[in-house]
Amino acid sequence: MDAAPPPAAKPAHADPVSADAFLAAIAAHCGQAYAGRIVADRQAASAPATSAPDPFEGKALVMHVRGCDEPARELRIPFHVGDDRSRTWVLARTAGGLRLKHDHRHADGSPDPVTMYGGDTASAGSAQRQAFPADAESVAMFRREGLTGSIANTWAMEIEPGTRFLYELSRPDGRLFQVEFDLATPVPVPPAPWGTGG
To answer: For residue 181, which of 160, 196, 195, 197 has the smallest C-alpha distance?
Structure first.
């Protein structure tokens, strides 16, 4: 008679203490909005020169910790760029850590062709920083939409409660984008993101 298989090991990156502490630190800001500023915007070394306008240039950047119905399991954080309310970060607890997805909508509420991309944590991270490499579903979408430069994306978030929140996009080719938000000074709550109603 064959021996029973050993019990499945927990993923090496599972760390409920860090994941829960990170989620709780952001949830402590539920209902508040904060102004941000770009602190890094380095293009990939191989990126062609472009004259296209920077979509963030001269725009007010505001994050709003809004979707807090289940703060221990999921948070929705709209990221407003001027009057553009198309972006929402969806941060969720998983069995192995945390998942970040980007919900992109048009002004009429319909989903953008490139939406709900992101990934799961692949390492324990900490209560202050978590990183999210692009998952297979996102890589397939990027390939389908001709965004091959994005297949190696890693997103990260950092928080110092009451002080700062950082959102980051990086790639091995040298691309680095970071927006830092001042958590010490709440700003007026912006309108709801597109596609969510009031």
So the answer is: 160
Enter the DSSP assignment of 17: H
- Distance between CA 150 and CA 173 in Å, rounded? 10
- For 19, the enclosing helix (H) or strand (E) is helix 16-27
Count H helices and E strands in the chain, helices first: 2, 11
As a whole number of angstroms, the distance between CA 181 and CA 31 comes to: 15
Which pTM value belongs to this model? 0.88
User: Length of the chain, please?
Assistant: 198
For residue range 29-88, list pLDDT tens digits in order. 999 999 999 999 998 777 666 656 677 878 999 999 998 888 779 999 999 999 999 999
Backbone angles phi, psi at 165, to 5 degrees: -130, 135
**Which residues, in sequence order, are CB contacts of 57 under 8 Å at separation 6+?**
none
